[in-house]
Amino acid sequence: MEEIQTTGPSVEEAVDLALKRLGASEQEVAVEVIQEPRSSFLGMGGQEAVVLVRRKRRATELSEEQIDEEADIAADFLEDLLSKMGMEASVELNLEDGTMYVDILGSGPDDDDMALLIGRHGQTLEALQELTRHVVVRRTGLRCRVTVDVEDYKKRQRDRLASKAREVARRVAQTGREEELDPMNPYERKIVHDAVAEVGGVESSSRGEEPERRVVIRPKG
Fold first, then answer.
1. Does the pLDDT value for residue 109 go beyond 90?
2. Start-end of H helices in the chain
3. In this structure, are 20 and 99 located in the same domain?
4. Total of domains in the chain
C-alpha cells in the first residue's frame, strides 16, 4: 500500500492512524490535509479531519525551500497579529534539532505580554499554533511543519518531557510492566514517542480520546 486516506478528531490523530495502517514512520510519508476538523455546534455540523498520506518518493519530499516558505508565511502572519494586538515582540526563525521554530521573543518592558501568549499550561500558545497552522495549510496546501514558540517555552517543555519519557521507558524495560502517562496534546505526545524510541526493548502508543488521550509505554513484543 502506497497511500491511504484516513479521518480523525484532529489532523495529528488521522495521520497517526494512517501511519499505523501503512506501517511507516512520519519521516517516510508526505501528508496532504484534505479537510480540517471543525467542532460541532449543539451536537450538529461537526466534521473530522481528513488526510491523505503517501509513502514518500524522492519527488514528494518536503524541500528546504518549502520549509522556508512555510516559516516565512508563519512569521508574516504572527508579526501582523502581534502588531494588531499592540504587543512589542520580535519574530525570529530558528532551525533546531531538525525542527523549524518560529520564535516570538519579547522586546518590550512588560513580560506579561509573553505570559499572556503562553497562557495557562501553554493553552494559548497551542491555540496560536493552530491558527498559524491553518494559515500555512491554506496558503501552501501542505501540512504545516513549523512550530510556534514563545520565549523558548516549547523547547524547555520538550526537554522536560523527553527526559521524563526516557526515565519511564527505562523503568518499563527493567520491570516489564507497562505505564500510562498523563493526558497530553498531540505535540507533547510526539515528543514522548520520539524519546521512547531511543530506549531499547520498549514501545509506545496513544490511548483514549482527546483531551484525555495518553501515551502508554510497554515492553516491546
1. no
2. 11-22, 64-85, 112-118, 123-140, 153-175, 186-196
3. no
4. 3
